[in-house]
Amino acid sequence: MDFSNFQAPGMYPYHASSSSKQAEKSYVDHPIMGPHNSSFTLMPEAPSKHTKYPYVTGTSVLGVKYKDGVLLASDTAASYGSTVRYKSVQRLKAVGKTTALGASGEISDFQAINELLDQLITNDYMWDDGNNLGPVEIHNYLNRLMYGRRNKFDPLWNSLVLGGVKNGQQYLGVVTMIGVHYVDDHVATGFGNHLARPIFRDEWRADMTHEEAVALLEKCMLVLFYRDRSAINKFQIANVTEAGVHISEPYALQTNWSYKAFENPTAGAVGSW
Amino acid sequence: MTKSSVIQVPPKGGFSFDLSRRNAMLQQQGAKLPKYRKTGTTIVGLVYKDGVILGADTRATEGEIVCDKNCEKIHYLAPNIYCCGAGTAADTENVTDMVSSQLALHRYATGRDSRVVTALTMIKTHLFRYQGHVSAALVLGGVDVTGPHLHAIYPHGSTDTLPFATMGSGSLAAMSVFESRYKENLTREEGMEIVSAAICAGIFNDLGSGSNVDLCIITKEGKEYLRNYQQPNPRSYTRSKGYDFMNGYTAVLSTQIRQLRQHVQVLEGDRMDEE
To answer: Do B148 and A198 touch (CB under 8 A)?
Structure first.
């Protein structure tokens, strides 16, 4: 099939009419980069096999360790550029019985990673040797996967949060699209790094109960809803304990938009804006 | 001999970019642009029950280097109006200085205390004229006859009127503290607590901000400028032997002693008129 005239469902309706002139040029309409042709990158007009930019993206994922396990939180939105296109996307996934994975970034790459992890877990199960892949092993696998793709200049465009509990030990780590990986007591991806990590650094404690940890996550998710344009007020929390992984149903948080000072902000300063 | 007929156009204000092409060519040939001093910065403002609290960190950077560990980012505009500045340090200093002088002249002309909206309008018209090239992002706060006011001013000349505002590279860290802790009708102690927590979030989570916390509390009674209200980054190690440098550490290459009396003439004369 010839995709040289392919135009992604556009957000730029004024380009739809010029499609008749594009017999030779391959013309792509990107939700973030805007309309451009493929010689944009100075490479010859061969079909590009490298992921250059993400299309459908999820925003931050947060993770904290607490007394009995690990909690991951994310909203259920997937944006297409500046539109919030899908509002019921589960960006958290259980991996085996010991680990939960949360992903931000390109959703199709997250789905590909899910397929690979499902195969990995199935193969591990088929060994039937009394042992199963724990969070440390999954983290390492994902790191090798992401770094390997990065070296081929064809990254999986995600930042992954991996949390799990095995043999009473909590584990919480991150792998980014270029293969940077680390573990910590509290992690975040994307905007969460700027808005949630400061709160975690101030208020996280090792001996938090489940309720306290959920309250801390909800506080940060509310700040993200207020200040991240791609976030929506619909969240899920994954709870990983020795007993297994439980991902909650989506729910909303109580917001407050009715501060008196915001009602008529220039009341006291007539003429300003 | 041809006459060159150049139409003289009077300058209309704003920057002249005549030398931009030459500069770009020089850069291509390897000349390096000087790094300018920025205030990486976390600056915040908060309206509480009786007035306004402004806060700022104290780190100034030149590229990757901290050039001033304890600079002052809360600038005086009027006895009842102060302004925190983020962005290029020269721009914030000079714009606030200039507007402060204009406000003083305005006070003499009108015989009244300055209002915050006056300062706001002067600053924003200046910044808009320079189309964002004057890189000053400001948090302006004060109390005048109409009450307490807080404004955020952006380099291109737009403004926001808000009950709480943050600017600078540490603004997200500080805003996360404000968003999670802000309530209406805060008391003075609660306000100071939240503002210094927000600045500390910037200091510890943003690389462009650091060192100490400055606060300025303005009410209708007056202002309280708390320089270095918190110093959460003390120098924790001092060498037990001390730091003196005895003779012999620096090599002396040559010595020449000249008596000054031969070169200086002391004259008696009248004192200069002071008036």
So the answer is: no
